[in-house]
Amino acid sequence: MGGVATLWPFISQMNPDASTIAAGAPIEVDLTPVAEGQDIKVFWRGKPIYVSHRTKKQIEEARAVNVASLPDPQSDEARVKAGHEQWLVVIGICTHLGCIPIAHEGNYDGFFCPCHGSQYDSSGRIRQGPAPANLPVPPYQFVSDTKIQIG
Ligand code: FES
């Protein structure tokens, strides 16, 4: 348990306007303020999205796992964009009953859901607890090396 307490600056996405975003418009997220080892939370379609700037250690841990042993087998490579492996983008809603997991908590240097104890790793994959599936990866793309578009 334990881990590093992380401040998650809320990035306000006001272009286009909030009502358009709520209806599902794509949002752009500037990655430059997100230091290695930090996460930010943004909102897309009313859902919290975690954007994690992973450390080398987190990436190595995520890739050292025997994928077949996972409850919801998926490689780390399949959950991030090639050439941008340091960035993890996931929908921050626990796949058990919908609580919002906490980043940098739990046994796997990933996310911990305090509601019933689900633990996700640094790839957002479920590793322990009642959640049946990995944190979903929303549709997104890199529009430059420092900016993504979600949606
Ligand atoms: S809602 Fe996350 S463990 Fe139950």
Report on the architecture of this protein.
Residues 1-7 have low confidence and may be disordered. This protein has helices at 18-22, 56-63; strands at residues 27-30, 39-44, 47-53, 87-91, 102-105, 110-112, 119-120, 126-128, 140-144, 147-150. A hairpin with a 2-residue loop joins strand 2 (39-44) and strand 3 (47-53). It has a single domain, classed as Rieske [2Fe-2S] iron-sulphur domain (Rieske Iron-sulfur Protein, 3-layer Sandwich), CATH 2.102.10.10. It contains 2 helices and 10 strands. The strands form 3 sheets. Strands 5-6-7-8 form a 4-stranded antiparallel sheet, with no helix packed on it. A 3-stranded antiparallel sheet has the order 1-10-9, with no helix packed on it. It is globular, with a radius of gyration of 15 Å. By secondary structure, it is mainly β. It binds FE2/S2 (inorganic) cluster. FE2/S2 (inorganic) cluster binds next to loops. FE2/S2 (inorganic) cluster is lined by residues 94, 96-99, 113, 115-118, 129-131.
Strand content: 25-35%
Radius of gyration equals: 15 Å
Helix content: under 10%
> How far is the N terminus from the C terminus?
33 Å
**How are helices and strands ordered from N to C?**
HEEEHEEEEEEE
Please write the CATH class name.
Mainly Beta
Biggest sheet features: 4 strands, antiparallel
Structural class of the helix and strand makeup? mainly beta
Q: Compute the number of helices.
A: 2
Biggest β-sheet: strands ordered side by side in the sheet: 5-6-7-8
- CATH architecture field: 3-layer Sandwich
CATH superfamily: Rieske [2Fe-2S] iron-sulphur domain
Looking at the structure, the CATH topology is Rieske Iron-sulfur Protein
Spans where pLDDT lies below 50 across 5 or more residues: 1-7
